[in-house]
Amino acid sequence: MRRILKYVIIDIIKNKIVVFYTILIALFAWSAFGLEDNASKGLLTLLNIILFVVPLFSVLFSTIYIYNSSEFVELLVSQPIKRNKIWNSLFAGLSISLSVSFLIGAGIPLLVYAEPRKALMMIVVGVFVTLIFISLAFFSSILSRDKARGIGYSILLWLYFALLFDGLVLFLMFQLNDYPIEKMMVMISALSPIDLSRILMLLELDVSAMLGYTGAIFKQFFGTSLGLVLTFFLLLLWIVVPYVISLRKFRVKDL
Amino acid sequence: MRIALAFIILLAVVGQSKAKTIRVGKDRPYKSIKSALEIAQKWDTVLVENGTYTEGNINIYKSIVFMGEGMPILDGSRKFEVLSIRANNVVVRGFKIQHSGYASLDDPGGIKVYNGDHVIIENNLLYDNFFGIYLQYCKNCIIKNNRVIAFGKEEQQIGNGIHCWKSDSLQIIGNKLTGNRDGIYFEFVTNSVIWRNIADKNIRYGLHFMFSNNDAYFTNCFRNNGAGVAVMFTKNITMMNNTFEENWGDSAYGLLLKEISDCYLGGNKFVNNTSAIFMDGTNRIRVEKNIISANGWGMKIQANCMDNVIEHNNFVGNTFDVSTNGSLTLNSFSENYWDKYEGYDLNKDNVGDVPYHPLSLYSVIVENTPSAMLLFRSFMITLLDKSEKVLPSLTPANFVDTRPLVQSIKL
């Protein structure tokens, strides 16, 4: 497995796009902190970028990469290697390379400018978001043999989580305005990894108090260590579940 | 000239011969404060030396100067009201007064003044009392440079730092109030001034007005209270040069104005509050030259507010500059600086050529649907806000600053 992993990572680095991605994120991060006059504002700007660009890049790059390495996968399958190992090393390779480029791009300016606790939280959230969307890419690329369709799925998934989901939530809120829906909304927010990460980060940035009553409920839920553990568990589920589904399909797939 | 000098000296000598100083202390004839107070005559000075005096409730019935040397401690053993002043022209200076009793019926305080005229209370430390300094039916009193520290956990179980009831012409100057229910509480207090006090970490409000007309507070600092200042059911209050900061929490405000009218709010600084100014049933108030920065909400103006003028303020770095709960707008905004303003100024007169709508769509949504706060900073919301700015449909069209400033006002 280690050898396959090495090949995958070398292949991704040779690709150079990941290097550009690193530079892009670094540019975003440094300019966010450089332009805003205080660090917490910079953090908020960076948060927006992380929740928008990182998922998009992770999901698209991973999907395309998986499709492009289909020949490589077929070659490996003909060898006496377990299919699990192939798929795992592909996932690990993508995860490691994209996470590392996020760490280099955003992690360094975060550690330089922001408070250690907030910076750490942001880095962890960023890495989680990266992994979640790689996992979603695996999920959407296993659904179809057709490359265009697979990429379409992944774009749709990203659109759904980044934009549509919030719109739906807003619509729901308008409809159920007369009911005490705060607690339900906490549950619903768990259905979107981007929302989950955003709320987690906002609470860390100490704007929670300004969120009023709803904020108090979030704080009650997410702010405790149990809530924190639960949130990370949910995020972990978002990595594991799509990937495990894809793995199961890959195991029995007729290539 | 010489005659006049002689006369003054004579007066001084006569005065001295009349008023004497009675010392209280371990090595003095008078070992207890009560015994000294008993023999003291009008205009005498009772000077208490360093030590701890646990004498239950100490009453002052005469016009005397009651002074501590080296901060002697008066202890109420958590049972008694420590010091009761029941005379005019009393001065209390330099004591540490601690551990008063707790009772919700007669409200015992560290120092309580009953019907006093010209009472001065200064340089005392009031430590862990139920009420700190309590004034009722008082006139022309000065409360100066006291430090009131209490350790309240819940509103019901602690009194106010400086509590004034049915009084007139008070001066509350330079006190520091920490951990009380309200830092300073005014009920039916008129013609009084509050100046240079610091109220922090109080459970409810830093300063609280109820039915108290014609008062003013200047140059105070209200930090980290449940809410900074609450002015309720009151007329003619002048509020100038105060700092309201770090009043965080749900339903926490820098300044809460409820059912008040004809007031002036100028030159204040509101920083880092959940809501800087909350106005409910507020009429004919002039809000000018304030700095409102880095708050969750700059101003929350309920739709039942009328004829308020908001001019020449700086709104910088607030999440929401203004919000309201209805579509009716009877207040006027003019020549404020809004850091979110995106218009232009062709003739360079520092007044933007495009009117500014300070009410964002999202703030309206949040006001109607508080749980929409869940979507705070979401990309969807940013999009909605942008399109609403271009074509306002949901936000009231007359909620507008027609002459927004392009550069911030130097305050």
Main sheet makeup of chain B:
14 strands, parallel
Q: Give the overall silhouette of chain A.
A: globular
The main sheet of chain A comes to: none
Large-scale geometry of chain B:
elongated
The percent range for helix content of chain B is 10-25%
Features:
heterodimer; A: 255 residues; mainly alpha; 11 helices; 86% helix; B: 411 residues; mainly beta; Pectate Lyase C-like; 2 domains; 14-stranded parallel sheet; 13-stranded parallel sheet; 4 helices; 39 strands
Topology:
The complex is a heterodimer of chains A (255) and B (411).
Chain A lengths: L1 H14 L1 H19 L3 H30 L1 H8 L5 H31 L2 H28 L3 H29 L6 H8 L3 H12 L7 H12 L1 H28 L3
Helix pairs in contact in A: 1-5, 2-3, 2-5, 3-5, 3-6, 3-7, 5-6, 6-7, 6-9, 6-11, 9-10, 9-11, 10-11
Chain B lengths: L1 H17 L2 E4 L8 H7 L5 E4 L3 E2 L4 E3 L4 E4 L4 E3 L7 E3 L5 E3 L2 E3 L10 E6 L5 E3 L2 E3 L3 E6 L5 E3 L2 E3 L12 E7 L2 E3 L2 E3 L5 E7 L2 E3 L2 E3 L4 E6 L4 E4 L2 E3 L3 E9 L1 E4 L2 E3 L7 E9 L2 E3 L2 E3 L3 E6 L5 E3 L2 E3 L3 E5 L4 E6 L2 E3 L3 E4 L6 E5 L2 E2 L22 H8 L10 H12 L21
What does this structure look like?
The complex is a heterodimer of chains A (255) and B (411). Chain A has 255 residues and is mainly alpha-helical. Chain A has one domain. Chain A is built from 11 helices and no strands. In chain A, α3 runs parallel beside α6 and α6 packs parallel to α11. The longest helix of chain A is centred in the middle third of the chain and has 31 residues. Chain A is globular, with a radius of gyration of 19 Å. The mean pLDDT of chain A is 88. Chain B is mainly beta. Chain B folds into 2 domains: 207 residues, Single-stranded right-handed beta-helix, Pectin lyase-like (Pectate Lyase C-like), CATH 2.160.20; 141 residues, no CATH class. In chain B, the strands form 3 sheets. Chain B has a 14-stranded parallel beta sheet, with helices on one face. Chain B has a 13-stranded parallel beta sheet with strand order 3-6-9-12-15-18-21-24-27-30-33-36-39, with no helix packed on it. In chain B, strands 4-7-10-13-16-19-22-25-28-31-34-37 form a 12-stranded parallel beta sheet. The radius of gyration of chain B is 26 Å and the shape is elongated. Chains A and B meet through α3, α7, α8, α9 and α10 of A and α3 and α4 of B.
